Amino acid sequence: MLKSWRNKIINAVLTVIIIVGVYSSIFQWAMPVFENHSVTFPQSVQVVIESLTTTGYGGFAPWQSDFMNYFVLLMNLTGVVLVFVAFPVFFLPYLRDAIGKTAPRAVDTKDHVIICEYSSYTNALIEELKSRDKDYIIIEQDETNALELISNGYNVMTGDPESEDTLRAACISEATAVVHSEIYKNISIVFTAKNIEPGIKVIAILRDDNMDIYYKLARTNGADITISPRQLVGKSLATQIPAVSINESVEIDSTIELVEIDIEEGSELCNKTIHEANLLNEHHINIIGAWLNGDFKSPVDVDLVLDSKTRLLVAGDVSELEQLTKKAEAQTRHFIRNEVFIFGYGRSGKAAAEFLKDKSVDVRIMDIKEKEGVDMVGDVSKPETLDQMNIEDASAIIITIKDDTAALFSTLMARNKNKKANIIVRANDVEDVQKLYQAGADYVQSLATVTGRMLASCIFEDERSLAVEKQINLVQLPAGDLVGRTLAESNVRAETGCTILGVIRDGKKITTLHPEKFEFQDGDDVILAGTDDSTQLFEKKYLN
Questions:
Q1: Among 96, 66, 60, 74, which Cα is nearest to 19's?
Q2: Closest Cα to residue 146, out of 163, 158, 135?
Q3: Which phi and psi angles does 392 have, rounded to 5°?
Q4: For residue 535, which of 452, 450, 478 has the smallest C-alpha distance?
Q5: Nearest in space to 139 (alpha carbons), one of 177, 180, 188
Q6: What is the DSSP string of 459-472?
Q7: Which ranges does the record mark as transmembrane (predicted)?
Q8: pLDDT tens track of the chain, all 544 residues?
Q9: 182, 237, 496, 501: which sits with the fewest CB atoms below 10 Å from its CB?
């Protein structure tokens, strides 16, 4: 918006300068020719400006020749036109924005999601909704906040989400779901929404450690789904520790699984490309994608070099995956109890500790408050605290503290004290993810992104997420335009980025698909693995 105004002002100033310059040159030339009176260029500029602004002409008026009189008249009319153009183009929009802009108090939409007040997870949820062509409306109580969000391109209306009138104005009867947090403040939203539309799906977010009781009450009194993203993030952070990571899998049938495999330093696969390791031909697996320094890439090129920072997401026969996992492990493994530090013992920290308790590691927990389960009390963002913790020999450090700035300091100091530790951090805001990587984190998980994806998984019941925080979905969709073609002819992976893991035909699941011989038939459903964008591309290409 500021850029648009800047461009308008620059163009207007340039236009006036050009007009003044041209008119001044004509006036300087015409005076000796038609009036037998020479003038300097500055004098010409003065006369032109006086004409355009209609403030008078000093000693140069009146003129004897018709040309000069007509020319002066032209300059007068130009000045009037400039005023009439400038007023609607510049002043009216400014006045309208300054005194007339208000946020709408009602909308006319349907098949949308109602979001009760903007929060840290809202951007991630909106991105998920947009990727599925789902509309939304944010209800903001504060008029100033609503106007600011509107200026940033959000769909916003103003009103009290606890009010029946507001929810009706948000077209709740046509909505897919109502999403809100801070239930101890807005628990009446649940009752209000259900009173108006008993069938509406109400999703509540558990944000703080001491809010369990409110959500139990909410579930008892009408909330359809309550989610706790902090717990999921905590478990996710714990699974990132290569030394203790157990490959979480999603079973496609009794013989086929979708698993994650870490490439360990010193293993048979380390520092080889996918092509050099002969993974696709020797092991008959599908490589869905790979995490590279925390970013997921799908599909991956066969020239990708597998190093100790690589984590593959693959699908294949259970026995083949077991062989591949052995190749990804280092040939010499030191079976010692590694030490893992957890900074922050809130909901995420507890979930991480719970996940690690049965693994062959020693977990030491640090929190700013003294509570059950905490080994050390102190502020991990302060150097003296880390000096007392002896983290130099830790194999991994998990940081799950509330403040991202404190997490940034903790990451910097932890990396300075331990160059080899696997540092895994929870970011509360998406904007801080890259900063934490720059500070030395090996893996960063955004709480807002996880929350958004969890909400999307609750809203869209046609998909089941492999792991909400990992940007991959397993979906079942009709074969569509694939009917009559073989797997090789369809070239789905190259054209969409999706991987076909199996086919459902007459209620039976088929996972052995010969590329040249298996032909899709009418009525087939395909099981796809892919990102939101790739599955959406599949739908547009084969189902429209």
A1: 74
A2: 158
A3: -60, -30
A4: 478
A5: 180
A6: H-TTEEEEEGGGTE
A7: 12-31, 70-95
A8: 445 567 777 877 888 899 889 998 998 998 888 888 888 998 888 888 888 877 766 567 778 888 888 888 888 888 888 777 766 666 666 666 555 567 889 999 999 999 988 887 888 888 888 878 899 999 998 888 888 898 888 999 999 988 999 999 999 999 999 988 755 456 778 888 888 988 888 888 876 655 556 656 655 555 677 777 887 788 778 777 653 333 344 445 556 677 778 787 778 888 888 888 887 777 777 888 887 765 667 778 888 888 877 878 888 777 777 888 788 775 544 444 578 999 999 888 998 998 887 766 789 999 999 988 899 998 888 888 888 888 888 888 999 998 899 999 999 999 999 888 889 999 988 888 889 988 988 888 888 888 887 888 788 764 444 444 445 677 788 999 999 999 888 888 888 888 888 888 998 888 778 888 889 999 999 888 877 778 888 988 998 7
A9: 182
The fold of the 229-466 domain, in CATH, is Rossmann fold (3.40.50)
Q: How far apart are CA 527 and CA 504, in angstroms?
A: 8
CATH 3.40.1390.10 for domain 471-542, yes or no, is no
* Fold adopted by 112-227: Rossmann fold (3.40.50)
Q: Which tokens go with 89?
A: 């183009």
Q: Tokens at residue 432, please?
A: 């801080």
> Which ranges constitute the DSSP H helices of 398-503?
404-417, 433-439, 447-459, 487-490, 492-496
CATH match for 2-99 among 1.10.287.70, 1.10.3720.10, 1.20.1740.10, 2.120.10.10: 1.10.287.70
Rounded Cα gap, residues 465 and 481, in angstroms: 25
Nearest to 180 by CA among 169, 191, 168, 195: 191
> Do the first three CATH levels of 2-99 and 112-227 match, i.e. the same topology?
no
- Annotated domain spans of the chain: 2-99, 112-227, 229-466, 471-542
The letter for the amino acid at 534 is S
Written as six digits, the tokens of 414 are 């932890």
Residues 60, 66, 70, 75: what is their CA dihedral angle, to the nearest 10 degrees? -20
Q: Let me know how long the chain is.
A: 544
